[in-house]
Amino acid sequence: MSTVVTQNGLQLHTSGPLAALGRVGAVVGNTLREAGRAKLFYGLLGAAVMLLGFSLVLSDLALVDQKARLVQSFGMAVVPLVCVGTAILMGALLLHKEIDRKTLYAILPKPIARGEFIAGKLIGLCALLIFELVALALVWWAVLSLRGGHMTGAIVRGLGLHAIELVLVTSIAVFFSALTRPVLSGLLTAGVFVVGRVTYLITEFLAARKGLFVEVPAMRALGKALVVAVPDLSTFAVTDPILQGWDVPWSYCLSASLYGLCWALAFAVGAVLLFQRRDFT
Amino acid sequence: MNDSAAAHDDTILALDGLAKTFRVGFWGRPVPALRGVSLTMRRGESLGYLGPNGSGKTTSIKCIVGLIQASAGKVSLFGGDPGEAQRRARVGYLPESPYFYDYLTPVEVLEYVGKLYGMGARDRAQRSKMLLGQVGLEHAARRPLRGFSKGMLQRVGIAQSLLADPDLLIWDEPLSGLDPMGRKEVRDLMASLRADGKSLFFSSHVLSDIETLCDAVCILDRGEAVAQGRLSELLRSEELESEALVDLPSSDGRAAVLANLADLPGANLTDLPSGIRLLLPTAQVPELMRLLLEAGGTIRELSQRRDSLEELFLRKAVRRGEGAA
User: Of all helices (H) and strands (E), which one includes residue A13?
Assistant: First the structure.
């Protein structure tokens, strides 16, 4: 690590991986602090807790041996959905708030690369979302226990895959956040999320003998482009197999995680490239 | 860092034909904000950056600190690329009307900034305490910024720009938002920073502050540097005018001498009760002396006339604008 020594003998560690980690860490800390104060975060967290509590009431309507299953199904739907919603909304606002409030005007001229700043913001938000996922999973577990259910290894691995999906969705949100205004970036991220969840369907339509994606050349081109450009988010949606009692093997989790993290990295690099070109007037 | 070139040259900041054109509107209409600004700043120098609103001062400052990318031209900081972390670590930047995270306290802002500069924990704590005292914020050191006035935020901004003991301070309108007492304190701080050998590059609308604090100025108008150099040289009247207060003997020939003086090329004569005041090109001073010698008159005062910064600014920037209109 090379050091700059100032006129009055102050040592500034500005170069090298450790110094870069220190700067990213500082941005992560501040992002966590900022995001942890966001009313939006607590609103969504509160709504999810209420929904999980509501599943307790709803399970009373189910047959005796189906109560735990209902709470399980409900949790499998609510927990990832709320976390993805948080990722889209907070990811879309992540950079916009810094630009709108001009807080980054005092930060970017410091010896921090724009890539380090984006990395810090992204890691900070991902950490908060994983905290949200874990907190909701614990609430869900408590509710499930009240109905005689339990967390299986498959459910835990399924939640792990959702954590990877959250990292990927956050990267997509930050990518669009570096490109455009928050409403549009939120809509684009939501769009990519929806398309990503049905990419496997588009692939099936393209492989079919007839249909819109086969007969209309423009739709065929669009379908092919979407399959290539949008990550297949159905990779992380393992709710149905789990509810049907199937296992989620570690090997699948590993390959799916690798797939998700590669896409997340690609979007993060894209966000950095866009952010580096931006003027802050 | 290889700063050998900078060390020999002593140039810490150089702009070479810096230009910036913004694209505005749906069709991306080009709007030039900077048109080839070049300037050089040497170590220990204090440079005032002047110009009317919209002349490109903040745009060029943002190009220097990397918030805006120049369309053309080059910025050199300490003899090299301003994008390098080691060079940026030697710069303290104060944005115009600085904004910080309003949930942080001044101590937390400085802690965060100190980490970005790669300062150790002990240095961060010591420097924070010292600087918050220096800018008069020790009483509010642990209060969230959301309750701060504009002047208090400006002081936080000054403190964060000084945290890493930078060699070069780039301050955009450092005196804005401050009350008279605050302005005096910041002026005193700037004077002491100069005395400590820091280089100061700052923009201001307050010409008297620039005249007091700067060795050199650069006047910007509609994106162009219309005047720059050492203040002492720029303020010397361009026509090298002299001002003389002369006494003439009260004799019959007085009227004729007065007529001769008035006939000196470029002279402007005013007959005052205290004497005769003459404004004339410095080149005519020997002729004036010859005429007075012949007439038996005396020179009571003779001085080289010096523009004020305000006159220079009006001539270079404002009147240029009127001429163009």
Answer: strand A11-13
